[in-house]
Amino acid sequence: MPATRSRSRSPAALAPSLALLAALALAGCGGGSPHPSAALPPANRPRIALLPFDNLTTVGGAGDMMTLMFFTEIGSSGPYEPVETGVVAAALESLNIRSVAGLSTEQIKAIGERLAVPRLLVGSVLESGNVHTSDGELPSVGVTLKLLDVSDGRVLWTKMGFKTGEDKETVFGWGRERSAPRLAASLAVEMVRAIPAPAPAPAFAPTTKGGTP
């Protein structure tokens, strides 16, 4: 489907809408979690800022929903500790950054300094709609995700992902997903798991007075 950029909104306006979308997503999920037995995330994870997803579709709120899904998944099982979405929105507002599409190196550095994070995650929603099947319409989602180094703006990793409600369909329609929030959450699980883990901190080796370990 053709991708059409929707009217951009101020990042500070995302926090209230994310709260509303959280309630809607939980209601739509009906208690079914993509990873119900996931363990608690490890302590002392490096911080990372997930910027609001750029919505390249004509579906209003698609960027907000995807931001919520990825923030939730990173916070629950990702290798990084995400900065609260409201804090990120306030930082972007204070830096007068109205859109995260095409950030300059200077802007990337400024965001990293303002939020005290070494990495940024920047995403775009490419698809948010439905696919036509013989049994009716099923949801479809597609996103891109980039991991940026704030010291120089380098792209350390990037990935594109798409899902439709019929991806896991077996015989007689079993496995078919009709909930758009659950499908988005499932895509977030897969893509967050693929984010490269931060390099481990160097081990501390105590030394004696003579300088020999």
What does this structure look like?
The N terminus is likely disordered. This protein has a single domain, classed as Rossmann fold, CATH 3.40.50.10610. A hairpin with a 2-residue loop joins strand 4 and strand 5. It contains five helices and six strands; from the N terminus they run αββαβααβββα. Strands 1, 2, 3, 4, 5 and 6 form a six-stranded mixed β-sheet that branches. Helix 2 crosses helix 5. The relative contact order is 0.17.
Basic shape:
globular
Order of helices and strands: HEEHEHHEEEH
Helix content bin = 25-40%
Mean pLDDT: 79
CATH fold name? Rossmann fold
The CA-CA distance between the termini, in Å, is 62 Å
Q: Name the CATH superfamily classification.
A: ABC-type transport auxiliary lipoprotein component
As for the number of domains, it is 1
The top level CATH class name: Alpha Beta
Structural class call reads alpha/beta
Give me the oligomer status.
Answer: single chain
- What does the main sheet amount to? 6 strands, mixed
Number of helices: 5
- DSSP strand content: 15-25%
CA radius of gyration is: 19 Å
Overall CATH architecture = 3-Layer(aba) Sandwich
Q: Which labels suit this protein?
A:
213 residues, six-stranded mixed sheet, alpha/beta
SSE arrangement:
Elements: H1 14-29, E1 47-50, E2 54-55, H2 62-77, E3 81-82, H3 85-94, H4 105-115, E4 119-133, E5 136-149, E6 155-164, H5 180-194
Parallel strand pairs: 1-3, 1-4, 2-4
Antiparallel strand pairs: 4-5, 5-6
Describe the structure in brief:
This protein has helices at residues 14-29, 62-77, 85-94, 105-115, 180-194, and strands at 47-50, 54-55, 81-82, 119-133, 136-149, 155-164.
